């Protein structure tokens, strides 16, 4: 730290504590929390200065290899904030919370999700893997329970029996996924962050998040790929 960083106040500490205990915080909640922390600590509050407030905290977290990161929900495009440990990959971080067998199930689930067309894996496909695990075979009932825990802990999210990566998981694991799935992991052509649930151009293969697709094509008279200009054949969400 060069001594240039702004001072950490109690307001900053309180904000960081809540963020850490939440695991992930939606943007509007983070803005409310920012205001609350500043007012409680009687320090200057400006509603448009959340990012500055966070970068002050980040400059103090740097020596600890931690960082508050901003990400986007692939469902609705809303901003979210999570505290990420840069010194550990997600797998070592998860290793303290789960058994080796549970971790193997998670990794296999992640494979299915990332290798899928649309960023989802069905519970049937995941449960079919549970008795092929190398560490220890798992009964389907047992695997169902483990999946439930992954959803509660915000690593996976589930809709109608289909699983995808939770926003928290994407924020925390972006680097891990990009380096471990180099051939298949895509960055969104619009916002340049990792896209799990995405639409893909049939002509050139670029991908876009659904909220980014919606926003991008709102301004276009006809949907054409931003890269190759071919007609966009997917249904605009």
From TrEMBL:
Cross-referenced InterPro entries, in alphabetical order? Nse1, Nse1_RING_C4HC3-type, WH-like_DNA-bd_sf, Znf_RING, Znf_RING/FYVE/PHD
Q: Name one GO cellular component term.
A: chromosome, telomeric region
Name the coiled-coil region(s).
none
Query: Keywords, A to Z?
Result: Chromosome, DNA damage, DNA recombination, DNA repair, Metal-binding, Nucleus, Telomere, Transferase, Ubl conjugation pathway, Zinc, Zinc-finger
Q: Does the keyword NADP apply?
A: no
Cite the PANTHER family for this sequence. Answer: NON-SMC ELEMENT 1-RELATED (PTHR20973), NON-STRUCTURAL MAINTENANCE OF CHROMOSOMES ELEMENT 1 HOMOLOG (PTHR20973:SF0)
Q: What does this protein do?
A: RING-type zinc finger-containing E3 ubiquitin ligase that assembles with melanoma antigen protein (MAGE) to catalyze the direct transfer of ubiquitin from E2 ubiquitin-conjugating enzyme to a specific substrate. Involved in maintenance of genome integrity, DNA damage response and DNA repair.
Q: What's the protein called, per UniProt?
A: Non-structural maintenance of chromosomes element 1 homolog
Q: Which organism is it from?
A: Menura novaehollandiae (superb lyrebird)
Question: The organism's lineage?
Answer: Eukaryota, Metazoa, Chordata, Craniata, Vertebrata
């Amino acid at each position: 730290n060069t001594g240039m960083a702004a001072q950490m106040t109690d307001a900053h500490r309180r904000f960081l504590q809540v963020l850490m205990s939440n695991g992930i915080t939606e943007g509007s909640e983070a803005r409310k929390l920012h205001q609350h922390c500043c007012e409680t600590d009687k320090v200057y509050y400006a509603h448009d200065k959340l990012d500055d407030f966070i970068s002050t905290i980040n400059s103090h977290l740097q020596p600890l290899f931690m960082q508050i990161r901003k990400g986007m929900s692939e469902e609705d495009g809303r901003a979210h904030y999570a505290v990420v440990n840069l010194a550990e990959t997600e797998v070592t971080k998860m290793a303290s919370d789960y058994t080796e067998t549970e971790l193997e199930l998670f990794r296999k689930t992640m494979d299915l999700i990332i290798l899928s067309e649309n960023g989802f894996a069905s519970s049937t496909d995941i449960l079919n893997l549970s008795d092929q695990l190398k560490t220890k075979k798992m009964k389907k009932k047992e695997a169902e329970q483990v999946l439930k825990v992954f959803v509660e802990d915000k690593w996976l999210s589930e809709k109608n029996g289909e699983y995808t990566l939770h926003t928290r998981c994407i924020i925390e694991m972006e680097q891990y996924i990009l380096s471990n799935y180099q051939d298949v992991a895509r960055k969104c052509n619009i916002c340049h962050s990792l896209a799990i649930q995405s639409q893909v151009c049939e002509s050139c293969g670029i991908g876009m998040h659904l909220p980014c697709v919606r926003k991008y094509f709102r301004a276009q008279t006809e949907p054409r790929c931003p890269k190759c200009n071919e007609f966009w054949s997917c249904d605009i969400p």
